[in-house]
Design brief:
single chain, 573 residues, alpha/beta, five-stranded mixed sheet, four-stranded mixed sheet, 22 helices, 23 strands, 38% helix, 20% strand, disordered N terminus
Length: 573
Amino acid sequence: MAEERKPDEILNAILAGSEDKSIPELLKEMPNEKLIKSFYYMESIPEVTQMRVLQDILKSAQNSEFGKKMGFAELKSVDDFRNKLPISDYSQVEAEIEKLKAGTGDILFDGATASFIATSGSTGIPKLIPESKNGQLVKGLVSQIRAILLLMLAPEVMAAGKKVLAIANPSEYGRTAGGIAIGSASGQAAKDMPTEMLKKMVLPPAMMMAKEVSNEATDYLTIRYALAEKNLVGVVCSNIAHFNILLKKMNAQAAELLADIRTGQISASITIDPSLREKLVSELVADPERAAELETILENKKTLDVAAIWPDFAVVSCWMSASAAKIVADIKKQLPQTVKFLEWGYGASEGKFNIPDKAQDPAGLPALFGYFFEFLPVGATHNQTVLVHELEKGCYYELIITSYSGLYRYNMKDIVYVTEINNQLPRLVFVCKESEKLQVQQLQLRVYEIDGAIQTISDRLNHEIRFYQVLLDQENNKLIFMLEPYSERFDSDSFRVSLEQHLAEINPSYQQLRVAQQLWPAELIVVRDGYRDSLFTRSIMPGKNVNQTKLKTIVSEYPDSSSIVDWAKEGEK
């Protein structure tokens, strides 16, 4: 495609700088084909693109309160920028964000705040991330490019009559005291879908945009619409665990669902707003033929099997990296082998940072046109960052972003891994939060190191693991690994011994603490089948759902006794 990626007049304007339009505004004007060509061309010259994006971001905020304070108009180089502004986090912009929430403009960027995005609230108190007009455009463009590339990788989605199930969160939760909308990152992504994709959605707009619907009702309605549609070709969501749970609920509630499909109704047992119920039911059609077909499948197979109920099911787009990788591996066992898995894309409330363009690959190209990226090598004892074109393959970095929405040298406290580099352009994958690590004196084990160790032993002993968590019992100075294996024949003693030996081999600090008896032998708890899925329903924060829920890998509590199948300890059989 090199011939197709040459710059044209608009790209020259982007690279030279436009007096009256930002880079996101120029890109938004492009038709899909030109947008994709422009995206790939800008990716091919990462150093030039990133310099232009930084200049454009600073220009769009130079008249703001913060921009004047920091002298954005005088910053002429990357070094000027890095020398002037320290690396920051949410606490350092919280006061400015409070002003933005009240409706005050020209604080962190020029103009008014377009919206706020609520974080997942893992601490119990969601943070609100401001969004400028340009910041909204960037997220919309990333979603647009992701959708276009998804369709290029899975053209069967656009076949006539085929439908897609998109599991998203509400695009708007409420408003701030200043009257500014508060939404979710995945809900906004659903709004940003291209029109041709929205027409493919199996869920009606009235349901996708509905507010204050319980998780139970949302799940039932999602299954009800999906099950009624024989031509479902794929599912798009962030957390594939949600789809996995929906499949289980589908079988548990089969009789009720089939009755609704047969009569064109919504069960009276499902509590929803009467006006929403009336709106949805008015558009439903009784389908006794589909109900009979599903009844036959259920009778013959004793389950509503994906391949049988949706014969054309071919595509899943979801998170595939970090803790989601094992969930993807699990659900693949329930789907036809021909199903393509496409990465949903790495992002957060603060931004959408990469654009996947390969099937079965969790990594993606950095969204160079929308953010200025810096990277802090993991383990560095200094704050000296490297830029996109300076990254090294096989290395781990903390991600530092500068955005059009008022985040400057903002530490995402995310760790990303460089899977490959092609002509200075890296492919990045999210691996864990910086805080996800175990520390005992001089020992430090990050989640990706623990995951690698468990995977190594799993492969060596041919014991596949569906899910795991680990805790540090500080009172007794020992690591406790909690594993949910696939097989009932799992040998917990041999797995524990092999894991203990492997940790000592790969981490000298672990070996030293064990020899000095400052850390006692690791223990392994085998938890019952279905433990992971039960955690999802128990871990949902108020106002959230499974799609927005991530399970912690490092925990502080033992599982309840009813969940424990076996407990392997040194010297015990």
